[in-house]
Write a structure and sequence with these properties.
Blueprint (H helix, E strand, L loop, with lengths): L3 H22 L6 H12 L1 H15 L4 H32 L5 E9 L5 E9 L2 E7 L2 H8 L4 E7 L3 E12 L5 E12 L4 E10 L4 E8 L2
Parallel strand pairs: 1-7
Antiparallel strand pairs: 1-4, 2-3, 2-5, 5-6, 7-8
Helix pairs in contact: 1-4, 2-3
Length: about 210
Amino acid sequence: MRHRPLLLRVALAALLLAGIGAARSAEPPLPAAATSASSTSASSTSASSTSASSTSAHAAPASAPAGSLDERIQALKSDVIALNRDLMVLEEELLFPPGTQVAIFVSMDVGKLFALDSVQITLDDKPVANHLYTPREVEALHRGGVQRLYLGNLRSGEHRLVALFTGRGPHERDYRRGATLSFDKRTEPKYIELRIEDSMARLQPEFRVKVWQ
């Protein structure tokens, strides 16, 4: 995890240097008319004005490479973003191989009966995640967002997950509820969703734990 900033800086520097160097090397040399105009002006004033007019006729196209350089830099920025994404995927594959990987997500359905403040997760009686939510994060969950709250490794076998939700329930009262799940971790990745739902029949929030198949 701690090597990511170094990898990204090296990759970014290499891409930018290579791209900018290539863009600059592609720029055309100074038009020959400009060189002749400079030498001619030293020997004769009348010849200088003639050469200057000739130089200005040929100098206009020289501004084109600047736009080309900007386009190349923008393309390099896009390449760096794609490289960053690929590095993150590779890092996760190395740190959390499929055989031991477990991921826990949080989602919310409607959420009118419960205002989420925090979620705490323990695996096999060991705390692994504790998140305090901002109003913006809660709003994103209300809009259908899914948050990955935890990503880690578990050995094969039986495990027990406990999720503790705190917030404000109906009538603005403090609310604290838990949900548990016992599951068998095998050789494939395990994805678990903690879902907060409104039970309109009971007028109470419900907390469900679902294993993705």
